[in-house]
Amino acid sequence: MSTPVVLVAGLHAQARTAAVDRLLHDHPGAVAIHHDLRSVTTGRVERLVRDRSGVLDLAEIHLAHGCVTCTVREDLLPQLIRRAATASLLVVDLWDSVEPRPVAEAIDCEEARGLLHLTSVLTALDTEHMPIDITRGDRLTETGLSAANGDERHLAEVLARQIEYATGLVLHGGDAEDTELARAVLDHLAPVTPVFGVDALPQVTGTVLCSGMLAERVDPATAQLPVDAHTDEITTVVWHRLRPLHPARLFDAVDELVTESVRSRGRFWLATQHERLLAWDAVAGVVSVEDAGPWLAALPEAAWEMVSPTRRSAAALDWNEIIGDRVQHLVFTGPDLDRERLHALLDSCLLTEKEMLAGSDAWIGYDDPFAHILDLKEIA
Q1: H or E stretch including 58?
Q2: Residue 144's CB: how many other CB atoms inside 10 A?
Q3: What radius of gyration do the chain's Cα atoms show?
Q4: How far apart (Å, rounded) are the C-alpha atoms in residues 245 and 352?
Q5: Which residues lie below 8 Å from residue 108, measured CB to CB, with a gap of 6+?
Q6: What domains does the chain contain, in order, with CATH numbers?
Q7: pLDDT tens for residues 319-356?
Q8: What is the pTM of this model?
Q9: pLDDT confidence tier of residue 375, bands split at 50, 70 and 90
Q10: 173: phi > 0 → left, psi -120 to 50 → alpha, else beta; which?
Q11: What is d(CA 30, CA 36) in angstroms, rounded to the nearest whole number?
């Protein structure tokens, strides 16, 4: 019989520790494993193993290459497998800036099959600081939270991914006003993810999670995106259109789009990239545009069986007899967003009727400022 595994992520160490403490308290026989990565760039990591009674093991590990992937592969996974036979629950207490997705995918592997099964991914959040941190454009290196040499990620970028990948969100600290604001922010960023207080955590020993299913919740082609919403001063605006975007006009609008909102994401269709689904991901003024693979309509029908049912279902929701699943579906969240102005700005970037009639053979000749940066993360 395999042992359940819970991942607890979060930039806010006190909130994360409180959630882990609660899990250990609620589950006799549970064991938590934490890797302190503050010196990982030198190849040195400290591993702490504890249960509800206290520290079981404290050791310094030396890695051939100082990175999160090496830590997970060389130490975390063997530790989980070793302790699976005696623990009722294994809690992985992730270092501050570690994103849960690669760890979940590492645990969901052939080596651990039959010994471990992932049941929950919780992200613990400081109720007072989260609404502020999601707006911060600081790099992790500036905050002392980088997890590897050359870690160029931004604090808000990591926090957004920790929130959106989780199957449950845990709030810790703050007063009633802080809690109200934090819940309002999370209702916009992750509206379908349940939110808990640290003293009332969800059941974590039941359903088995598949890393592929977790990935489909956030991947651009299948992501469960927020809907239009307005709560006090927070607004989420959805933009959905069936015409391609002119690359030069969109590029000129990027700065305004990302500074108007705190968080935006989704999938979009550039006229010059007719076959490719492009992913838009922006937070706290930092935006990335990436190639997320072909539109389903760009594949021969014989290849459709090779994509997941979730991908086929998502494409079916947007399907048009002429353009297939090609679509503009972007979502923007921020304080007091002007929906009409945002729509007008984005609509001005679409091809005109005359440009549409020229067809894709003409579109390919447009100046495309995105062409040389689609393989890079940061464009603004």
Answers
A1: strand 54-62
A2: 9
A3: 22
A4: 9
A5: 118, 209, 210, 211
A6: 3-216 (3.40.50), 229-363 (3.30.1220.10)
A7: 999 999 999 999 999 999 999 999 999 999 999 999 99
A8: 0.93
A9: low
A10: left
A11: 20
